[in-house]
Every structure is written in structure tokens, then in C-alpha cells.
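We keep the chain:
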Amino acid sequence: MKKTFLIIGLACIGVTVSGQNIRGPWKGVLNAGNVKLNIVLHIDNDSICRLNSPDQTSEDIPGQVAYISEDSILVKVPKLLVLYGGKLHDGKLKGTFIQGISALPLTLEPGELVRNRPQTPQPPFPYKTEEVTFTNTKADATLAGTLTVPKDGAKCVLLMVTGSGAQNRDEEVFGHSPFAVIADRLARAGIATLRYDDRATGKSVGGKDPNITTKDFAEDALAGIEWLRKDGRFKKVGLLGHSEGGTIAFMLGAQKKLDFIVSLAGTSVKGDSVLLEQNKAIAGIMAKNLTIEKLRDMPAIKQSPWMMWFLDYDPQADIAKVKCPVMAIYGSKDCQVLASQNLPALRRTLPKNKYHLIKEYPDLNHLFQHCQTGMPNEYGQIEETISEEVLSEIVSWLKTIE
């Protein structure tokens, strides 16, 4: 998922002078009515700055210093068409953030935004980690990852597959590292994992293709499964996938490539229906007249091979072929993959198996955090990375099928 500022441009011309007192990182909260966004502005020198909204993206957007002095600054960020001007007062920059015809007050104080992420694993670790690579030869892609193995070894191992978008092996988002948290918990319980950077992301190289789809990512995952089987240390090899990764789990399960599946918010109905309900849940009344036909006619969707494949793909046929044990869970407040839409469809279609666990968790969002609304703009504001109940239940379920 990617978000960006919705900004209309404003041009400015300035003169640069020395601004030693203002250089460095500044942080503050932009109050835009019903949405509050953390803003971080890095003044690198008298001509260069970087702007970031950590609640929306982890990317620093390059900017320009149009004017700077010992106590005042004016910056612009051309890519986002943002303008901010502030003046030092009692150690803080007090100024205005311009958005089109709106001018919002924004006070910044010195320092980086430090997120409290209490579940992020910290060394020393009571297990072994190995840096490994495996290859999807068809795509000429080498995937780099972390194999986490309990000190006494493990009977089973899970390949961990991230959600949509370019994700690193920890599925890092808004300062959270859900896959690192899950891998840590599983290793402490005697279960091994392999998590990897998506192709052309992090330390993974090759396979970059503008026409890539979920089917291609599934081939990367299959290469990881085959590597784990050839490794020979594990009796059973399964897949834990989040969102798109959950969809990939069912695709490979249908091919009988897996011994078990853990699907976290994986889709189980056709993609166009998923996207329609997602838009209605997030946009509310603004999307009340939206239809599948209108979605498909949007230029941004029509120009995206990944999106067009997703809209056309119906996982029901693959789900109907899955014979291995499945743990599939959903959050009741998930606005991206709605439990009310996907969970019943999965129950109807998945062949019976005494080991299946299909469950909806109350008050959890798409990341399986406890939340208020479930909206994506909450993800970065929540300290919890993933529900402890979910972590415990994954471990308990895996113990039953080892």
C-alpha cells in the first residue's frame, strides 16, 4: 500500500543565507481536521531538505531550501508541491504548511520521530540466523533472505511471503516489522522460518519487470519452497503469507507444493470485488456510487498489469484444490481485505480437513493490530505490531500439525 500527499502547487523564489541554528531534523503533527499526520523535516544544509510523513510512507522526499536564516526558513518540495515556512520561537519552528488553497498551522520541534515498537525483537537472540539466497531462474531473480532456526533445530519451516508492493523481508511498514516479530516468536517456540526481500528490493536482485503480477511473485515463493526442501533439515515445509502472500499460499497449495498454510488476511473472492469493498470501506460515502465497471475504467488501474491481473483473478478455483491443513485468519476491522466478504467464501470452498482453523478476530485491522477504526492511517500510530493473541494462536496451531 502506498500513500502520498494530496497537494496543489505553490511556487516561490528565495534567497539563501546561513542557518546553523535550524539545520537538522524537526518533527511535528499536522492537524488536518479528522486526520492527524506526523511530519518530519530534515534540513540537511542551507539548500537541501527532506520531508517525510511517517504515517503515510517511509520514504524521504527531497526538497529545496528557498530561504534560510538563523531563525527562519522557507522550504518547498517539488515532487509533492508542498510549501512550508516557519520561524524559531522558544526553540520551536512555528509556521504554516500550505496545501492548495488551505494553510494549516504546523509547529515543529527539534529531533527525530521515535516510534515505540515494543515487540520488535532485540538481541541477543536464543536462536540461529543465516543469510541465504535462492534463485528463480525463469525470472533471473536472486532472492535474499534470513533463515531463522532454533538452536536445537526444527521439524517444520515456513516460507514467509509479504503483501503487495515492494516489501523487505521484515514486511517493514510505518516503523513496524511484523515478519521479524513473527519469526522471532516462532523460533522461540521451536519453529523455523525463511523471510526474504521481494525481487529487486533490499538485497534481492534481478527480476525487475514492469509487467510483473502476483503470478510472478508466486513463482519466487515456489523457488523458496523448493530451496527449503532441498536444504534437508526440515520434515515439513509450509507458507505463511500476509494479504497478497496469503493469496499466493492458496495458489501454491492448489499445486500441492505445501505441507501446510498460514494465511493472514488472504483474499478468497475475485480481486475486483475485493477492491470495490476496500474502496467503500475506506472512502465511505465518497465511494457510494463506485462500481466494478467504474473501477476497471480508472486509468491508474488500466495502466497497471499487476492491478489488472489482480482484478481478474478469482482464487476460488485454487482454494477448492487445497488439501493441506490451513490456518486462515481475518481481523473484524480490516478495511483492505474485509472479513465479512472473504471469510465466508473461504469456508464454503476450502475442502474439509480436521486441522483447519478459520477465524475472525474482533477489533483487529489488516496488520492484526488492536485498533479503533481499522483505517490505514492508524497503522503507524499504534504501538502494537501484531496481536499477542494472534502470535500465540499461530504457534499453538503449528504445534498441532508438526
In short: The longest strand covers residues 127-136.
